């Protein structure tokens, strides 16, 4: 075939893909399974809230009180063990010889840390009633919460081990195994919780907790089996010589992870303090607060997964000394997190009653009183949604740089220096009640998000050679 003159010369050669679009695709490819894992894992807590909602307003309040304290300590543990992910990502991204051995040592030390931490925290959980009794909680709610916690606390050990392995596989950009196990665990948790709570012998609130503990143990076993059957993952030999205590690597994890744990506790502590404070206003505000937190936390799982992907993408670029790549990774992740949470804010403002209905049975005892209070809280939840998403992703990007100490200070300042005092002043001083506490959330999260993004912009501009 003869082409018209000049066509060959004017045809444009294929253009290389934009590195920004490549980064968007890579971040979405990694964050999508991480988001699904987070949603499935949060689904354990959310499904428990749904089951408790079928038992009535008082079980919802008791479950919220127990779960908020459990998550406060558990999130601190996650922060400490989350240092495994950026350290593994850097080791994998560097391409240096002996990388598999370095990864194995980090994983082994992370599992040791999770076990030691869980063993240290569980006695505090066992004595929950004594810890919270001086804080003015309803005695019957506190009693039920303590009963619930003495079963739920056994969730801690397998859950921390699962988090170490999940972070490791994410850093190796192979999140399929924890995704499969996490998705499978969610319906199992619902089935077991419903069976023990409403079946025979009708354990009620205790049955919901028992279902979650059994589910997490089975999920951990399932993940270990899946890793053992994967030929690529099997070569890392994660579980070889687990009995060896590697103090040097453990200290390295603690150096990066301790500030992460403190920052996590600072944020979780903000919500725990709010839950305890809400309990002083009565069962109805506490139940409404619990429902609103479930909605907000469910939305948060998406930017949380994007932030975990940012940790990996930035960490691998750091290992490769790719300054432009790590800046793109952080910018793309922050943009994705903001966009999603903006959409969540619109949904919370547009359809609050539909969202609340997912977590509160309108026919359950006391639900009619809880619904309007929860609608008011959800309006404030929509306001802080975007700040919450941005701070989570920016924090993930900074963790990829293994910058954790200053973000810890930022978290403490924003949450406890601004959020808590302002919330208390509005709740009691201005007479806003529970809505004042949620307004404090908004102010604290906005401050933290601005400061973390500012720090990311400054640190990511430094050349890596």
Automatic annotation (TrEMBL):
The chain crosses the membrane at residues 69-89, 109-128, 148-165, 177-198, 204-227, 331-351, 371-398, 405-430, 436-457. It comes from the Bacteria. It is a multi-pass membrane protein. Keywords: Antiport, Cell membrane, Ion transport, Membrane, Transmembrane, Transmembrane helix, Transport. The keyword Phosphoprotein does not apply. The keyword Transmembrane applies. It is found in: Cell inner membrane. This is Multidrug-efflux transporter.
